C-alpha cells in the first residue's frame, strides 16, 4: 500500500547559521550553536596556521569562570572524564584570556577570534564590539560573523551589509548567507549570483541552496549543484539528487545516492531505499533500512516495515510497528491496525484505530468505519461514514454510498456518486455505472463504462462486453473479451471462454485449463463439466470429487450425475439420496429415474408421483417419456 511537501528535513540553513570556515575546518551539514570565525591578517589575507574552529570548545560563561578558578585550586582526580573536562576548560579559559588581552591591546585578529568564541557560546553583547572592531579592520571572517550576530538580533539589513562586505572580499559562507537572505526577500536573481559564488568556491551549503533554488525554477542545472553538495557530505543534497534520478527513471543511480544519504542517518532516504529494495525482492535489506528510518523518527518507515512483516507472516511484530507509526500520526498504519483488529472480530478496537486514522487526516478511516458499521448491520451509521469519506473525495466511498442509495431505490441520488467514483478512477464505480445504464436499456452508455472498467482489469465488465460480442456473432471479439474477463478473475468469464473453445473444437487443452480455473473458483457448471470430462476419461474418482463439490454447492445436474456414478459403483442407496436432491431441485431426469426405480420396487403410487413431477420439470423429451410411463401406470392402477 500512498507525498506532498517540502523535501527538506530542517537541514537547510537559515541565513543566521552561516559560518566562515576558511581556517581549515570542514563545514558540516548542520550548524550547532555559534559559528567559527576566520583568522585573517589586517589586509584580509587568510592565516591558516592558527586555531581552527574545530579546536574551540563550546563553554558557557559559568563554565569558563569555573575553569579559571580551578587554575588556582589543587587538582582533584575524579576520573579520566572529569580530568579531561577540567583540562579543556582551563585551556579554553586561558585561550579566551590571551585573545582578550591581545584584542584589548588593538590586535584585530585576536578581536576576531574572541568575537567568534563569544558568539559560539551565545554571549552576543560581549562579542559584538570585538567583531565590529575586527570587521572595521578589514577581516572578512569578522564581517561574516558580525552579520551572523546581527541576523540573530533581528537586524537583517545591517547583517546583509556586513555579509556583502565579507562576500566581496571572498568569503563563501558570507556569500551563502547573503544569498539566502536575498532569496527570502524574493530577490532571486541576486540570490542566485551570491549562491553561485559560494558554490563555485566549494561551499556545500551554498551548492545545496543553489540547487534548491534552481529546482524550484525547474532548471536542469539543479542536479549539478545537488551533486556538488552531496559529494562534499551534504546528506539532504544526496537525498534530493536521488529523488531526481528516481523521477528520471534512473533507479540504479538513485539507489546509490539514497544509500549515501541513508548511511548518514537521513530518515527519508532510508525509507526510499527500503521501498526500492522491497520492490525488487530484497526484503531482508529493505527491512533493515525501514528499521533504521523508523528509529530515526520516520513514521512511514515504521508503517512500511509493518506491512513487510505482515507479508512474511509475523503479525505480532507488524502490529507493534504499526502502533508506533500510528501513535506518531501515520493514518495508513492506524488503518492497518484497524483492519487487523476487525479481522479478529475486535470491532471496538478496530473502530478506535479507524477514528485515529481519520483524526490523522486519512479519509480511508471514514470509509473503513463505514464498512465496519455495515458489517455490524448499522446501516444508517455506515451511510454517514461513507458520505463523509465521499465528500472528501474517497472514490470507493463514493461507490459504496451510491450502492446504498441504489439499494433503497434512490437511483437519481446514486448516479452522481457512481459517476464521481468512476471519474476518480474507481473501476467498480465504472462497472456499476454501466450496470445502471444497462438496466435502463441505454446500451451504448453501458458499453462505454464497461469498456473503461475492463481497460483497468475489471473482469465482470469484460464479461459483459464479451457476452454482447457473442450475441452479435463476433466470436473472435468475444474470445478476446472472455480471455480478458478470465484474466481479471471472473469465474463466469473463464467458464464461457472454455465453453466457446470447447464448441470450436480445436483447443481442448486450453478449454480444460479454463474449466479447471473456473471450477477451482467455485463455478458449479465448470465443476460439472470437469466431472463429465474426468468420467469420459475413466477417472471416476476425480469425476466423483468434482460432482460432489458442485452438488454440495447446489447444482442439481451435479447431484444427478453423482447419483448415476454411484449407481454404477453399486452404491444404490447413496445414489437415491442424490437423485432425490436433484429431483427436489427440479431436475426432470432425476425425477424420471426415481419413478423407474420406484416402479421396479413395485411402489406404483410413488412412481406415479415422480412421473408427474418429471413431466412438469421437463425438458420435452423427459416430459414425453414421463407421460407414457404415467399412462401405463394409470392403466395398471385402474385395472
TrEMBL record:
Alphabetical list of InterPro entries matching this protein: Sel1-like, Sel1_AlgK, TPR-4, TPR-like_helical_dom_sf, TPR_rpt
Top-level taxon: Bacteria
Spans annotated as Disordered: 1-47
Highest classification ranks of the organism: Bacteria, Bacillati, Actinomycetota, Actinomycetes, Kitasatosporales
Any Pfam family: TPR_4
Name of the protein this chain belongs to: Tetratricopeptide repeat protein
Origin species: Kitasatospora saccharophila
Amino acid at each position: 500500500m500512498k507525498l506532498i511537501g517540502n523535501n527538506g528535513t530542517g537541514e537547510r540553513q537559515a541565513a543566521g547559521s552561516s559560518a566562515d570556515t576558511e581556517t581549515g575546518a570542514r563545514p558540516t551539514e548542520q550548524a550547532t550553536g555559534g559559528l567559527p570565525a576566520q583568522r585573517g591578517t589586517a589586509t584580509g589575507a587568510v592565516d591558516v596556521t592558527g586555531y581552527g574552529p574545530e579546536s574551540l570548545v563550546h563553554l558557557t560563561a559559568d563554565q569558563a569562570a569555573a575553569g579559571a578558578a580551578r587554575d588556582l585550586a589543587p587538582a582533584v582526580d575524579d576520573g579520566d572524564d572529569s580530568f579531561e573536562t577540567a583540562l579543556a576548560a582551563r585551556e579554553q579559559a586561558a585561550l579566551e584570556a590571551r585573545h582578550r588581552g591581545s584584542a584589548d591591546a588593538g590586535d584585530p585578529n585576536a578581536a576576531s577570534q574572541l568575537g567568534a568564541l563569544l558568539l559560539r557560546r551565545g554571549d552576543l553583547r560581549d562579542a559584538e564590539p570585538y567583531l565590529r572592531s575586527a570587521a572595521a579592520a578589514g577581516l572578512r571572517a569578522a564581517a561574516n560573523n558580525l552579520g551572523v550576530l546581527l541576523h540573530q538580533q533581528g537586524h537583517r539589513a545591517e547583517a546583509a551589509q556586513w555579509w556583502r562586505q565579507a562576500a566581496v572580499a571572498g568569503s563563501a559562507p558570507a556569500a551563502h548567507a547573503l544569498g539566502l537572505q536575498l532569496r527570502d526577500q524574493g530577490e532571486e536573481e541576486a540570490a542566485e549570483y551570491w549562491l553561485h559564488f559560494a558554490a563555485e568556491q566549494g561551499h556545500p551549503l551554498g551548492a545545496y541552496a543553489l540547487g534548491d533554488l534552481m529546482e524550484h525554477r525547474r532548471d536542469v542545472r539543479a542536479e549539478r549543484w545537488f551533486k556538488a553538495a552531496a559529494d562534499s557530505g551534504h546528506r539532504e543534497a544526496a537525498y534530493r539528487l536521488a529523488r531526481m534520478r528516481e523521477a528520471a527513471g534512473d533507479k540504479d543511480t538513485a539507489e546509490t545516492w539514497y544509500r549515501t544519504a541513508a548511511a548518514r542517518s537521513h530518515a527519508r532516504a532510508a525509507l526510499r531505499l527500503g521501498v526500492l529494495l522491497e520492490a525488487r525482492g530484497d526484503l531482508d535489506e529493505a527491512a533493515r533500512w525501514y528499521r533504521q528510518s523508523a528509529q530515526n523518527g520516520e513514521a512511514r518507515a515504521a508503517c512500511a516495515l509493518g506491512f513487510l512483516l505482515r507479508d512474511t507472516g509475523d503479525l505480532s511484530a507488524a502490529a507493534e510497528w504499526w502502533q508506533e507509526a500510528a501513535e506518531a500520526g501515520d493514518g495508513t498504519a492506524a488503518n492497518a491496525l484497524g483492519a487487523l483488529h476487525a479481522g479478529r472480530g475486535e470491532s471496538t478496537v478496530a473502530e478506535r484505530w479507524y477514528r485515529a486514522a481519520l483524526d490523522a487526516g486519512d479519509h480511508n478511516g471514514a470509509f473503513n468505519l463505514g464498512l465496519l458499521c455495515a458489517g455490524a448491520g448499522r446501516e444508517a451509521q455506515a451511510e454517514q461514514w461513507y458520505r463523509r469519506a465521499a465528500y472528501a473525495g474517497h472514490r470507493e466511498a463514493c461507490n459504496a454510498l451510491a450502492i446504498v442509495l441504489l439499494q433503497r431505490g434512490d437511483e437519481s441520488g446514486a448516479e452522481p456518486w457512481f459517476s464521481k467514483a468512476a471519474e476518480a478512477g474507481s473501476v467498480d464505480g465504472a462497472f456499476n455505472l454501466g450496470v445502471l445504464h444497462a438496466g435502463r436499456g441505454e446500451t451504448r452508455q453501458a458499453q462505454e463504462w464497461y469498456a473503461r472498467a475492463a481497460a483497468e482489469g475489471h473482469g465482470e465488465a469484460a464479461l459483459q462486453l464479451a457476452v454482447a460480442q457473442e450475441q452479435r456473432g463476433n466470436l473472435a471479439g468475444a474470445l478476446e473479451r472472455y480471455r480478458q474477463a478470465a484474466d481479471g478473475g471472473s469465474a463466469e468469464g473463464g467458464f464461457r471462454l472454455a465453453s466457446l473453445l470447447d464448441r470450436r473444437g480445436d483447443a481442448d487443452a486450453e478449454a480444460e485449463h479454463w474449466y479447471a480455473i473456473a471450477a477451482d473458483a467455485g463455478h458449479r457448471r465448470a465443476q460439472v463439466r470437469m466431472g463429465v470430462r474426468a468420467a469420459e476419461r475413466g477417472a471416476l474418482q476425480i469425476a466423483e470429487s468434482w460432482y460432489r463439490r458442485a452438488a454440495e454447492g447446489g447444482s442439481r445436474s451435479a447431484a444427478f450425475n453423482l447419483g448415476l456414478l454411484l449407481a454404477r459403483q453399486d452404491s444404490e442407496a447413496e445414489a437415491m439420496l442424490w437423485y432425490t436432491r436433484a429431483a427436489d431441485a427440479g431436475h426432470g431426469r432425476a425425477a424420471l429415474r426415481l419413478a423407474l426405480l420406484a416402479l421396479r420396487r413395485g411402489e406404483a403410487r410413488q412412481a406415479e408421483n415422480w412421473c408427474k413431477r418429471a413431466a412438469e420439470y421437463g425438458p420435452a423429451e423427459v416430459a414425453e417419456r414421463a407421460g407414457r410411463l404415467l399412462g401405463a401406470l394409470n392403466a395398471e392402477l385402474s385395472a
